[in-house]
Fold each of these.
Amino acid sequence: MANDYFRTPSIPSQLLTALRATVVFLVLCGLIYTSVATFLGGLLFPHQATGSLIERNGQTIGSSLVGQPFESTQYFYGRPSSADYDPTATAGSNLAPSNPELRERVSRDSEWIQAKEGVNANAVPVDLVAASGAGLDPNISPEAAELQAPRVAEARGIPVATVRAVIKQHTQGPQWGLFGQPRVNVLELNLALDAQQ
């Protein structure tokens, strides 16, 4: 009777089966699959797998996938960022179009652009006052780049036609010809202008 008291209870066969399945799927999905996917990603897409980093003179200056602020008049600027261009804090503002705080921010940005570019409110492309969902979109529309071309050309002391030619060279079509709109990567555009000078 005492031996029965200290006997380890048997584990039901259904529980053993569930534990085995858990371990098998943990190894398959958690280790093997992720290792193979990481290896193939690095092999087939080495630039993208490492963050699409852009280097100049051995120094990383940004990523073609992440927007960043440009304040000098010689540079194009991108979309506003609700994450303050912090890649560790990607997020939209989640403010509804009817929210007074959003309306005030858009109005303030529009007035700043009008003053900086010497245009009226109707000429300001919507992507220059609207943050993207993640708040880090590195691209602007060709129209947004064209709006800034005269200022950038004047600040750099080069013809507007030269700046517009660089914009055209860096305008990408929709993804795979199907998804999205034509776009211009702001960092790559600014670097291309720096390289020309």
Amino acid sequence: MSQTKLSNIETARVTPSLVDVELILRALDAPPELVAEAIALARLAHTEWQGKRVSWRRGLEKRQAELAGLEAEASTLRFFLPSMLTGLLATPEYIRASLGHTPGDISKTVAKKIARQEVLYAEAKQFRFLLTEQAVRWLIVPRHAMAVQIDRIISISQLPHVRIGIIPLTSPVRRGPLNTFTVYDRRLATVETLTGRIVFQDPRDIAEHLDVFELFQRQALFDDEARNTLGQWAAEYRS
């Protein structure tokens, strides 16, 4: 480790990663109990909890501005969607219905979510979406509107810099799809829960989410195979 980096850590200009902490403690031959405590603190320093109720008080449209900023800065964005669709893929009707549990006026939030969809047409970026069958078919809106929603996913999948994978219920996957998560390049990952979201910045946490993404990606259908499956599901809703 360079003297400059060590100095920046000592003067709190840089927050050390877990690897940095381990290197320093190993060099100091620190006792195991101190190593465990320091590593736990380092992980906390790279993890942030954002409660849903706080977002409601601030106004969800402000959260949309933050997401737009993250999407603007990232070159490769990976979305794992096990239960519902992200706003980037959603129709206005789906967006409004998905916010039905949110207190207060949601019109500004709906408008911000729709405006964020412009980023999908930034050809310098790479988008990777993994959707389970449940995420695609969960009946958020009436059946005819669900068919339109699935049509939109098919349309977006035609963009050359967007790759959409579909994981049918019949796909053999060794690991359960526990949480929705998004990984922005290799610098940040967000995980959604019922009561808020967790933001990870530690490289090890990000690497683990990338590994999980790769695991599910191997079981997904892509390109024409995915579009054919989506088309069948849309036809079922139309019938």
